[in-house]
Write a sequence for this structure.
C-alpha cells in the first residue's frame, strides 16, 4: 500500500477525522505533529505551500485538507 | 430507502435529535456533510452540563456514539435536493442517493462568514486562517490577530495565547461581547493581548503569504499592522437554499422560522440548532441539543398521528 504521511496539530479536528478515516479503512500512516516538530513543519510548508493542517502525502501526491474523495481515489478505497 | 425520520446535519442538534428519535424507536438516518458541525471545531467546551471540560470533537463523537447506540443510522452525503413525494419527503444527495422520510429535521447549522476582502482566498492557509484549533499551534512565538468581537473570537484568543507571543483582537463594534469567564481569562493574559475596537481590515498585504494588514482607522498612529497570521471568527450565516426548495418560511436573516415545537410551516418538517433563531443569537451546544430533542419529539408525535 502507498506510503502515507499526515501532518497534524493535536487540536485539529480535520486531522482527527482523517486519522479516523485511515483507521476505518486499514490504511497505515505516519503522523508528524507540526505543532512541535519544526523540521516536519518546514517539510509540510515546502510540500503544500501552506501553513495549514492537515496536509496528507500519499506516495508523493500532496492532499491539502481532509479531502475524503481524493484520498479514496489515491488509496483505492471503494465505498 | 425509507425512514420514519431523516435528519440533515450531524452537529449537536442533529445528533441529539437522532438519539431521542432512536429512543422513540423511529427508523432514523442522519445525513452528514461534514461531521460534528460547529461544535467539532470549537476547541474546548466548558459549559456543557455534567462535563467540566471537553474538546468539541470529542463531545460530538460521544453524541454520535449515543445516537448510534439507540439505532440511528449515519450516512455520508450532502443533501442537495428536497421535495415532496406524495406523503413522504424526499432528500437527494450529491452522490445521487435518494432517501424518503415520513418526517424531516433540518439541523443544517450555518456557514462561516468570510471577510470578503480582495486576496482573502489566495492567502487562505498562507497567513489567513479560519480554524484556530487547527492552525493556531503553527504560530508559536509569532504575532497574530483574531478578527471578531464575539465569544468565539475571545475563546480563540485564549487558545492562541498558548502559542503566539502577541495577539491583536480586532472588533468592528465598540466593545467585545463574550462570556465573562472567557473574557476574564483573556484579560488575565495582560499585555500579550491588545484589543482594537471600532476598526476593520481594509486590505491584506504580502507577497506569498500575509505580511501585514491595512486597518480602516489608524491604531496607535499607524494604519499598518505587521502580522504573521490572522484568524477570522466573525460569525455564521444560515443555509437558505435547501429550506427554500420545500417552501419553508425563513425570517429576514434567513433562519428557519419554527414554533415552540420546532415545527416549520411545512407539515412533517422540523428544524433545530443554529439553522433556527429560536434563542436569538444565543447559539450554544446546549441550546442546539435541546432544540434537537424537541424537534425529534415533535417528529415522533407527528409520525404517530399520520
Amino acid at each position: 500500500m502507498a506510503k502515507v504521511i499526515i501532518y497534524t496539530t493535536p487540536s485539529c479536528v480535520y486531522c482527527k477525522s482523517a486519522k479516523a478515516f485511515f483507521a476505518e479503512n486499514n490504511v497505515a500512516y505516519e503522523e508528524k505533529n507540526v505543532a512541535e516538530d519544526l523540521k516536519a513543519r518546514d517539510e509540510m510548508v515546502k510540500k503544500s505551500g501552506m501553513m495549514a493542517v492537515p496536509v496528507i502525502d500519499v506516495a508523493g501526491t500532496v492532499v491539502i485538507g481532509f479531502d475524503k474523495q481524493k484520498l479514496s481515489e489515491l488509496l483505492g478505497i471503494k465505498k | 430507502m425509507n425512514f420514519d425520520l431523516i435528519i440533515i446535519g450531524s452537529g449537536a442538534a442533529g445528533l441529539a435529535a437522532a438519539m431521542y428519535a432512536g429512543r422513540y424507536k423511529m427508523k432514523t438516518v442522519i445525513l452528514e456533510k461534514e461531521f460534528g458541525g460547529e461544535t467539532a471545531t470549537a476547541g474546548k467546551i466548558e459549559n456543557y452540563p455534567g462535563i467540566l471540560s471537553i474538546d468539541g470533537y470529542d463531545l460530538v463523537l460521544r453524541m454520535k456514539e449515543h445516537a448510534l447506540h439507540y439505532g440511528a443510522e449515519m450516512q455520508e452525503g450532502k443533501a442537495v435536493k428536497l421535495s415532496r413525494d406524495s406523503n413522504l419527503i424526499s432528500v437527494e444527495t450529491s452522490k445521487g442517493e435518494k432517501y424518503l422520510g415520513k418526517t424531516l429535521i433540518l439541523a443544517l447549522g450555518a456557514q462561516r462568514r468570510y471577510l470578503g476582502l480582495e486576496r482573502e482566498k489566495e492567502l487562505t492557509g498562507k497567513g489567513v486562517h479560519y480554524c484556530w484549533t487547527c492552525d493556531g499551534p503553527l504560530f508559536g512565538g509569532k504575532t497574530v490577530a483574531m478578527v471578531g468581537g464575539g465569544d468565539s473570537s475571545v475563546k480563540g484568543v485564549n487558545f492562541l495565547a498558548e502559542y503566539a507571543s502577541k495577539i491583536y483582537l480586532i472588533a468592528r463594534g465598540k466593545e467585545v461581547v463574550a462570556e465573562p469567564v472567557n473574557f476574564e481569562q483573556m484579560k488575565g493574559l495582560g499585555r500579550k493581548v491588545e484589543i482594537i475596537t471600532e476598526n476593520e481590515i481594509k486590505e491584506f498585504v504580502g507577497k506569498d503569504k500575509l505580511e501585514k494588514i491595512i486597518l480602516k482607522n489608524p491604531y496607535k498612529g499607524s494604519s499598518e499592522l505587521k502580522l504573521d497570521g490572522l484568524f477570522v471568527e466573525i460569525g455564521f450565516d444560515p443555509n437558505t437554499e435547501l429550506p427554500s426548495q420545500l417552501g419553508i418560511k425563513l425570517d429576514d436573516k434567513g433562519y428557519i422560522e419554527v414554533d415552540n415545537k420546532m415545527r416549520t410551516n411545512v407539515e412533517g418538517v422540523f428544524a433545530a440548532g443554529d439553522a433556527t433563531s429560536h434563542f436569538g443569537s444565543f447559539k450554544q451546544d446546549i441550546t442546539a441539543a435541546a432544540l434537537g430533542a424537541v424537534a425529534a419529539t415533535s417528529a415522533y408525535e407527528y409520525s404517530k398521528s399520520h
